[in-house]
Design goal:
2 copies of one chain form a homodimer.
Chain A: E1 4-10, E2 17-23, E3 26-30, E4 32-34, H1 47-52, E5 58-60, H2 62-67, H3 71-76, H4 80-84, E6 90-92, H5 96-101, E7 106-108, E8 113-116, E9 123-126, H6 128-138, E10 142-144, H7 156-176, E11 183-188, H8 194-206, E12 212-214, H9 223-233, E13 243-245, H10 251-259, E14 264-266, H11 269-275, E15 278-281, E16 284-287, H12 307-311, H13 314-322, H14 326-352, H15 356-369
Parallel strand pairs in A: 4-14, 5-6, 6-10, 10-11, 11-12, 12-13, 13-14
Antiparallel strand pairs in A: 1-2, 2-3, 7-8, 8-9, 15-16
Helix pairs in contact in A: 6-7, 7-8, 8-9, 10-14, 10-15, 11-14, 13-14, 14-15
Chain lengths: ~375, ~375
């Protein structure tokens, strides 16, 4: 088994777990936030910088790498780790979410999904088998099964069809996946319907994957609905397997997910808003490119010990962003990733001390007041 | 005297000098290449990265900083060093070259130059006194006098008028410059006319500046003409003052300038071509974004020990640039600056060993054959 989780401690008052996830490229502590390196790079950063922010396990996108530079090229380079010079663990998504997001550019059949490239409009076909071929060529530590992600809102009939297909595709993925140094995770679907989530989970658990993604959440539904789904779903998930809440990464959702028993998260949010000049602070979000910070010579977040906050002022970072200087968005990116990794460390510490609910209250009170 | 040069050694067979330039922010070895940080940042880089490439003294642009974020704001931040977190020496140009380059957007009178901002079209007026106010507010170690840079080609009458005005403006700059922890350098003009260059130099030397820029070269004239101007000009420049060849930085011109007695250089070339996907190698320039490198898993320059060449392949860097990923141009920028700093170190070593002409031949034979 190339990837397994060892639960070191369960928090007394919640479903939160402290764990160690073993992978072919090292052991990482959970709960963990995975920065996203869509095109074989966490945008603007070197691998060393990602590590300095506390990043240990990164996600990369199968859809993007398949189109450019191509999985065959990455295989020829010795795999994704070597290609991008990242020696820690990597998880690749399956491209499922990406191709379904293409809307009119894609057609779903039982066999797979036909889609057109967002880069040049060329036509492509993803089947579960094809996606396994790509993910095995990329060679991440964890590959995700090819799933059908239902949109929000969608009617129950559609959600049923998507979850049933997801199970059939999960079986095909499992059959096609042979790489011994890579784990294949199944993905639970079922929209916001708690009974469908339970059915999807039971069908996937029967296939005995070494870990499970929870997909199709944070796709536009109210957060309360997502929490309700997790409240109902998590008790039936196997205790001894990692649970990964896909595409979720706002500070409040990270805490709420951990409280409900999630071990892994990924999200483009911190890096995306950083490039737009917005940063997390202990006191909520701050849009550092705004005019009000032009002569503010204090750091982005005075409680932060990241490289950006230790060395640069809001005024300077605002100037860089207004002047289209790359260093500006490098600094906001470093800060946002550091902020979330710091949050995860605080969460893990709160689990160790059985005080996660108190920590949630403290954190959210200050963060939401900002 | 805040800035002075001590000549440690003269090369036996050329006019090349090995020196130590003392500034309020430390001592640097000459001949030196100064990376350009136009908008208070060497494009794409942190100060630490600039130092890792060997950069010790950087240039920043008065015209750009005056327009954005404004010299008053930078003064309020504690000066340019503190604003941008660079603790080494800085040189600011005078904006002369920039405003003259604005073409139809500027009008020259005896009092100064009226110009329109390239950012928002707003109207501004630079006089020698105004430029001194700005440069003193920025607080670099070395400020350059406000000069009139004649274009190439231009007739002798125009070149005479520009050099005469440059001398009168140099006097006004000297009078207006009072900051004790900043040196003010004069700028020699005179186009490609050797007699005018000599006249300009003698007039400025009479004003006794602590250092001299040589401006108005590398503005489109053949390189041979620039070398001829330097051959005639350098023998009359004071031995005990630094000589700075402005805006010059291609590898061959760096060597030829040093051979003729230049101590300081700056140029946007290495950083600009890097952002366009072109890098220097021992075997000449290489456009790493070209299709031919798509599956080339060797480093940009196999003889290079920069961070980029030690860790990444041509194929990966090409992928990043094609996919508009910022890490790509960060890596090409690191490499190009490292390449030029490495060249400067080799040049200094060749001066120490009295073998600069042999080094020039070796270097150019391989570089030009590439």
């Amino acid at each position: 088994m190339p990837v397994k989780i060892e639960i070191k401690k369960k928090e007394k008052h919640t479903r939160a777990r402290l764990g160690e996830l073993t992978t072919p490229h090292g052991v990482v502590e959970t709960p963990i936030f995975m920065p996203v390196g869509t095109q074989a790079t966490v945008k603007t950063m070197t691998p060393e910088e990602v590590k300095q922010t506390g990043g240990r396990l990164i996600l990369s996108n199968t859809y993007h790498l398949y189109l450019r530079p191509g999985h065959d090229l990455i295989k020829e380079a010795g795999g994704l780790h070597q290609f991008m010079n990242w020696d820690g663990p990597i998880l690749t998504d399956s491209g499922g979410f990406q191709v379904f997001s293409l809307g009119p550019l894609r057609t779903i059949t039982e066999d797979g999904v036909e889609f057109r490239s967002h880069i040049d409009g060329s036509k492509h076909f993803f089947t579960p088998e094809k996606v396994m071929e790509i993910e095995q060529a990329l060679g991440a530590d964890i590959a995700m099964a090819f799933d059908e992600c239902a949109p929000y809102p969608c009617d129950k009939e559609y959600a049923v069809a998507a979850l049933e297909r997801t199970t059939r595709w999960a079986e095909r993925c499992k059959k096609a996946h042979t790489r011994k140094d890579q784990a294949l995770f199944g993905i639970v679907q079922g929209g916001v319907f708690t009974d469908l989530r339970e059915r999807s989970a039971r069908e996937l658990i029967a296939l005995d994957f070494p870990g499970y993604g929870i997909g199709g959440l944070s796709v536009g539904e109210p957060k309360e609905l997502m929490y309700e789904v997790l409240d109902n779903l998590m008790p039936i998930m196997p205790e001894d397997k990692p649970r990964y809440l896909m595409g979720v990464g706002s500070p409040d959702c990270l805490i709420e997910g951990v409280v409900r028993g999630i071990d892994m998260f990924d999200c483009v949010l911190p890096t995306r808003i950083a490039r737009n000049g917005t940063v997390f602070t202990r006191n909520g979000k701050l849009t550092v490119r705004n005019a009000e910070y032009a002569r503010d010579f204090s750091p982005m977040d005075k409680h932060c010990n990241c490289y950006a906050c230790q060395n640069y002022s809001r005024a300077y970072i605002r100037h860089l962003i207004k002047a289209d200087e790359i260093l500006g968005i490098r600094l906001t990116t470093i800060h946002n990733l550091h902020f979330l990794q710091d949050l995860m460390e605080n969460i893990r510490q709160a689990i160790r001390e059985d005080r996660l609910l108190a920590y949630r209250e403290e954190f959210l009170k200050v963060f939401n007041a900002g």
